[in-house]
Amino acid sequence: MFVEEPMEGEGPRVHPAWLPPEAFxxxxxxxxxxxxxxxxxxxxxxxxxxxxxxxxxxxxxxPSWNVDVDLVLALRGADELPNPAxxxxxxxxxxxxxxxxxxxTLGDEGFVLARAGDVTVVLSDAPAGLLYGLxxxxxxxxxxFDPTRPAERxxxxxxxxxxxxxxxxxxxxxxxxxxxxxxxxxxxxxxxxSRGDLARVREYGRLLASCGVNAISVNNVNxxxxxxxxxxERLGDVAEIADALRPYGIRVHLSVSFAAPVILGGLPTADPxxxxxxxxxxxxxxxxxxxxPDFGGYLVKADSEGQPGPFTxxxxxxxxxxxxxxxxxxxGGVVHWRAFxxxxxxxxxxxxxxxxxxxxxxxxxxxxxxxxxxxxxxxFGPVDFQTREPVSPVLAAMPATRLAVELQVTQEYTGQQxxxxxxxxxxxxxLRFAPxxxxxxxxxxxxxxEAAAGGGLVAVANVGDDLFWTGHPLAQANLxxxxxxxxxxxxxxxxxxxxxxxxxxxxxxxxDAELVRRTLHEIMDDSWRTxxxxxxxxxxxxxxxxxxxxxxxxxGYEYTRWGTYHFxxxxxxxxxxxxxxxTGFTGQYPPxxxxxxxxxxxxxxxxxxxxxHVPYGHVLHSGSTVIQHIYDTHFAGVEExxxxxxxxxxxxxxxxxxxxxxxxxxxDEQVRCATEWRDQINTYFFRKSGVxxxxxxxxx
Length: 700
Hints:
The chain has about 700 residues and is of the alpha/beta class. Helix content is about 35%, strand content about 10%. It has 3 domains: about 20-155, Chitobiase, domain 2; about 160-490, Glycosidases (TIM Barrel), CATH 3.20.20.80; about 535-575 and about 615-690, Alpha-d-glucuronidase, C-terminal Domain. The protein is built from 21 helices and 20 strands. It has an 8-stranded parallel barrel. Belongs to the glycosyl hydrolase 67 family.
């Protein structure tokens, strides 16, 4: 793996993530013919040309010559070529597609890969399909040219695979240039203006396209005044970003303030039913599309944590979302309307108020009222990206609404890219969850929708202007994994991680490829659960320091207005969300899970304290008591992180020294922080409960 000076025209000096030049060796050593026209075809041509220039291959772009080739990349609708080998390859691709069945179409982004004699062929209906097909060939390396490889058809399960950037144009006095960002500053904005240098943005677009992401929003959902101006007088800054990302098929979206007609338009109201407000949004949106014809749409955080919204005018969220959807509809745009709406001025003494209930209470009654170009964007869990939460019941409650699941790639509550915490297994658990009971439809089915018309998958981005994009080189795997799961939410996350390892640490450039692969799997495969073991136990959540959310602060949020309580006392711990004696949150689920979650005896151990307040002596399904589980897991978590660090040390001298050193430094911090978590959590609960550790270990 290399961090190297770029070739002329290749862009900024930055870590190549999972697209190092060496990953293109197999492709770049071949003879390649590209057949088709268009902006994205030009991108494919640039990619293969650079690879061939580096590794000695040859490339031809149609109209072509009668040449011998190893790889054909062609649009199905392109003209025939006077090349028998190429036409035979195209015919083989068509035959393979017919044999694979279905309707014979690939859509705007799909492709088929097949073999015809000694030639590999990638066919697509549209240029984006060839771009994705090219990166698939890169992932396969030499296997793409295996004569025995069967034909494959690939189409994204989700039409919209989107990243939300929480980047501020003007640096926030507390949050900085990127809110909840752990990899430096924004790649788009700096000191109140556009960064200007778009080379890194183009490189970012390349990374995103290679893993399957096709949309991003470029500013924070908390829209301050400077950010609000991106919709109008500073729209040119957004257009420049869109121009840089367009060659990789990435559509730009914009976070907007619901109060924009007042803030920017000088109107006395932003009431969604006011005719002047409707006309303002229509005219403003038309100007956006005049400047950015392929603009994706708006992202809105409304009536949440101080952001303005329709509640100000006695309207509901369907009224608010439909206002913007109406303005976007003539241009093919969508509005992503976040369901993260709750009362953030709660009284911790009032146990009837429950933040977990809020999204369902606000949105489920509105099912069927949203326009078809509204996507209600729902956090995967009912609270706020905690390390362990149940899947949000909203995702099973709105069958007549397009729903997207929102994940958090940036590690706000999972170690902030200072800790190794591979999130793929967690996300896969969410996507495979069956809200109506085992064997039924899954969350992946919900967000896919009929004929792939669902809301898709969205995540808060984790990149910044750090040399390693994500601060921690191993956190790059989370970004890659999100894109691959968004393309196919049913993929095995372990297989995806293996893909990332092969690309990022190419065997041909690694001293001992098998040792590197094995070591990374040993460190990363279970790292989410390791993080869970040494932090907040059994689904209770939010035992973090207020403000920066890093490190243990057991009572940090316990008596605040945010509704993030664990209710630990001398007798027990946990939040009673049952129907029988608590907030009734369990009743928001379909009957199967409502019944499972209702009782401490049937509730899964890992979610027990999310749903129930139980004594410290309560016996888990594992056979351990709650208090002993807390002690055991926190000691085990530190031991596992210490083992991670020891395993990483095997790779010293085998990989790029700058990567080795950065990860080694982060692992030192992870061991320190995990030890702090262990000691503070165990001491807190020992002093609360008075129950000693049955193994006699040191608790302070």
